[in-house]
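Let us practice reading a record.
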Amino acid sequence: MLRYLGQRLLALLPTVAVPLILVFVLLRLAPGDPAAILLGDSATPEQVADLREQLGLNAPIWAQFGRFVLDVVTFQLGDSIFLAKPVVDVIPAYAVVTLEISLIALVVALVLGVGFGALAAFRDGRPAGRIATATGILGISVPQFVVALVLIVVFAAGLRWFNVGGFVPLSQGFLPHLRSITLPALALGIAESAFVARITRGAILDVIREPFVTTARSLGVAPARIGAVHVVRVAALPIITVAGLLVASLLSGSAVIETIFGVPGMGRLLLDAVGRRDYSLVQGIVLFTGVFVILVNLLVDLYYAVVDP
């Protein structure tokens, strides 16, 4: 098991290394000077040049890359240019918000997606199955921001069950906190549930056509037992894979949703950092996201090794 774990870690390292290198290069190729943005339009060229020297932006690109690699290896990650704080102190507060919303969204996506997918598969060709299939196709076609706007209009502006936007920390009460994160989580989860439903439907239909299912039916095994015990267990493997991929999709999709709802999460922080050319903060967020995705995929791989050795 340890050997397998080591092999999977080595195979997953490019998941972090390649995006980090691309981010480093693209940030420095993109137009915009962090020093000029920080000082504002009234700054003189001399002031901008002095600040660039202080921030190390005048160093050769290879020297900046070497410092960047050293920061990644030592997990120091440098200081945020605009927040004037170490990146390792900035990210956790925003990461907690994003991970909380993503976790709720993951549960929503799996519950709705597996439910509709199973209904579409087990009732294939019947009215209920056709409706579930059509709902899944419609869900894939609708962007996340449209789902978010519909939820705001119906449940926030109309019914007033939830907040239109903003974020209430847990320290200010559980119910106010829940009201502030429910709609962002639902917007993310509902948008992704359609994809889970399509994968679930396909996986279950593939298993239903297997010879062992036909054999079980010929032996008189109850249809409910065939579906719950035999079909679902085998079809669960691709669904678990989708759940692992879904984590990365939720983290990347959170930027739009957090901006719409005014939630101080990592997605919104990343957009602000990119706009300000806050190099260290952008690189730190990409590193954190990459490591988290690696851990999730590693857990999925370990689950595979246990269930199907």
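A brief commentary: The chain has a mean pLDDT of 81.
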